[in-house]
Amino acid sequence: MKGLLLVVFKNAPAIAGAFFISLLCATVLYSLPAQAGQCRLDKRFGSVQRVRLDYVIDGDTVRLKDGRSVRLLAINSPEIGQDDKEAEPYGDAAKQALKKLVHSKQELLIQVAGKDHYGRTLGYLFTSEDSLLSASLLNQGLAYQVFMEGSDAYTECLKAAEASARDKQLSLWSQKPINIREKANIHSGFMIINGTVKKISKPKKSEFIWLEMDGDMVVRVPGHIVSQSWLDQIKGKNIEVRGWVKDRRNNGSDNKNAFKKRFKPWMMLIYQTDSVRID
């Protein structure tokens, strides 16, 4: 036992050094930015399941062989054409791109985050440990990054993927964000709009802060995610903001004319300040 203790003692510096180097390498590996369009699987985000694909539903949703419909996390692709509704620009292209990405893949990897209100599984799907489908679609300009409550291990690499496509003006980024004053182009659903913050309201009994824009829209922001300095920074500025738009007139109220006089008809919901970009 003493001999063993002596050996351990003599080799302690070498062991400590090796341990330090291993720890440093692991830290660097997780800290290195992934190439645009690539996000490495991070097991710290959650357990990994191996699944088999059945078919692609649209640009951000797939069906698995086990019967689950999976909505890809952190992105939103344009809607495809169905029934009597025309496809949004690049909606069909996004679906075809996703089909190509998963074509011939015998197995996919998924990290599940929960379910949405449609009952679909929310998750990150990988074709390999170095290839996240959400990032690949962002990198082609066929999806927008979505910032929901909280952040996770993939937020930054997804930002890099989208930035790469935006710099190259690929697909969706060949179009300019809709100006909020273009009333005919405002609709329910996910949008990226451009406008000026005319007024900031902070009702005492509300947990939200309201950004009143120069068009027919207000932006609802959770109060706990912003600082006064951030609010001061955007007031009076032209901003680009992304999120889900709701028609506030469709609330079942019979007194729509009174509503129209008091409130702006469109409301955008955001959950992180990353959803706002100062022009």
Summary tags:
alpha+beta; disordered N terminus; 5-stranded mixed β-barrel; 30% strand; OB fold (Dihydrolipoamide Acetyltransferase, E2P); globular; 2 domains; 279 residues
- Cα radius of gyration in angstroms: 23 Å
| Cα distance spanning the termini | 69 Å
| Helix count from the secondary structure assignment | 6
- Tell me, rounded to a whole number, the average pLDDT: 86
- The level of helicity is 25-40%
Structure explained in plain terms:
With 279 residues, the protein is an alpha+beta fold. The protein folds into 2 domains: 49-172, OB fold (Dihydrolipoamide Acetyltransferase, E2P), CATH 2.40.50; 176-278, OB fold (Dihydrolipoamide Acetyltransferase, E2P) (Beta Barrel). Helix content is 28%, strand content 30%. It is built from 6 helices and 16 strands. The protein has helices at 2-31, 91-102, 133-139, 155-168, 228-234, 256-262; strands at 49-51, 53-58, 61-64, 69-72, 75-76, 108-115, 121-128, 131-132, 144-145, 178-179, 189-201, 208-213, 217-222, 238-247, 266-269, 276-278. The strands form 3 sheets. Strands 1, 2, 3, 4, 6, 7 and 8 form a 7-stranded mixed β-sheet that branches. Strand 12 and strand 13 form a beta hairpin. The longest helix has 30 residues, at 2-31. It is globular, with a radius of gyration of 23 Å. 27% of the residues are buried. Mean pLDDT is 86; it is low at 1-34.
Question: How would you summarize this macromolecular structure in one to three sentences?
Answer:
The chain is an alpha+beta fold and 279 residues long. It has helices spanning 2-31, 91-102, 133-139, 155-168, 228-234, 256-262, and strands at 49-51, 53-58, 61-64, 69-72, 75-76, 108-115, 121-128, 131-132, 144-145, 178-179, 189-201, 208-213, 217-222, 238-247, 266-269, 276-278.
